[in-house]
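Subject: two folds for Thursday's group meeting

Dear M.,

Sorry for the delay on this. The cluster queue was jammed most of the week, so I only got both jobs back this morning. I'm pasting them in the order they finished. Each block is the input sequence followed by the predicted structure tokens. Could you check whether the formatting survives your parser before we put anything on slides? The first protein is the one we discussed after the seminar.
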Amino acid sequence: MTERKPALGLTPSQTVGPFYAYALTPRAYGGSELANERIATDGVSGERITIRGHVLDGDGEPVPDAMIEVWQADADGHHNAGGNAGFTGFGRAETSPEGFFHFETVRPGAVEGLNGTRQAPHLAVSVFARGLLLRLVTRIYFSDDPANASDAVLALVPHERRETLIAQRGPDGVFHFDIRLQGEGETVFFDV
């Protein structure tokens, strides 16, 4: 007599992690509200700017538990800003329950690109969120910068989608930049 094996059943679903709030986004656990959102302190030279935005899912709903990381050059276009006390070049922000994030910094300068060309001032951005097995990579450019017209990376993006990479300066002087993970108006993400 042969032994009968039990029929295979459905396995329970799993929530996709990782979850960042415990160690990487300290505000939720009593850390400083601006611990990582202030990239440049008041003494750093350059135009002071604030970038505000939301992380939104494919339905336009806020993502309340995403983590945004940014890297940028200083006002002179240097990533390794040795001697520029108060400038880290790096920021990390968790989103609020409304999907809101912000950074306080100085406007970056143009950086050297391939073949000695200059890249328009920008911030490099990584997006981490539940359901994403890998980070999403994008950039934030500035709406009022004429160097955008000659930026080699921005030129790779179809004209009708470039606006998803450009922060708009509001009447209050604050740059606004929403990150849409999918759907209509999806932010352009780079394959790195």
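Second protein, same layout:
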Amino acid sequence: MLTESQNFIEEKYPAEGGIRDIHLFGKEINDETYTICKSDMMIKGNNPENIKVGSTLSIDEFAGERFDFMLSNPPYGKSWSSDQKYIKDGSEVIDPRFRVSLKDYWGSSESYDAAPRSSDGQLLFLMEMVSKMKPLAGATDHKSGGSRIASVHNGSSLFTGDAGSGESNIRRHIIENDLLEAIIQLPNNLFYNTGITTYIWLLSNNKTEKRKGKVQLIDASQLFRKLRKNLGDKNCEFSPEHVTQIIANYLELAEVSRDEKEGSSKKIASQVFDNTDFGYYKVNIERPDRRKAQFSTERIEPLRFDKSLREPMEWAYS
């Protein structure tokens, strides 16, 4: 991902005068992948010391560092319980990367945990990158300062966690601080090792004027071409035309309805929402437990009739 990103920058955006410094940093827990990455860095003339080994979540190797662009493809549904002792002391989160400041209903700011359930750490990787975003430093031009993030997730990051949970606090922090630009749904079976639905989250703390306060949802799940032979779970891919179509839709911030006609090339759909469309308040309504109400346990008399009136009398209680 790192060196391919470097190639993309150099090919698509050549430096004026041919001089530009690109510094790559990364961390990998798998030993084999780590050594391959280090070797790749040395072959390409980059600094291999910028690649660290170990868990990204347990130790903040790049504390104090800030980056222009960040990419991640965190493991889906993988437990982070082995990292928990570095992040939480009992039930309290002690790592500042995973605490956020949120306002309550009356506008008062409080510090909240931003740690999801231990069975899935995807959103922790996202918060790790959010903590490494460059501040704008007073810049008013969106071309100056700030950072951009792209992260690939499965669907659980979108909806797991009740209001007030770590997952909800993370999503709330990202949206209320106007960091989320777009979420792109990808086709199933696009990756080698999973066939589930995946999504790209795009974040920026320096949105263009037309994107401020907005979130774009792009459905590109029907935009693919089949492979002639499956590669593991992977049986499809994006063509260059598909990538161009997605990018154009994103850059235009356009709302598009999918054409359901067979053979139609218009297989992308897109909608734009205000940030406030994603928020809600959850209110607990407390009421007495009627099952515990105190009633007389003595016998209740049945209805009695006065034949002269021919009307039922009131209940008689002993």
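Two things I noticed about the second structure. The first strand starts at residue 26 and ends at 28. The chain has two domains: 1-54, 66-312.

Cheers,
T.
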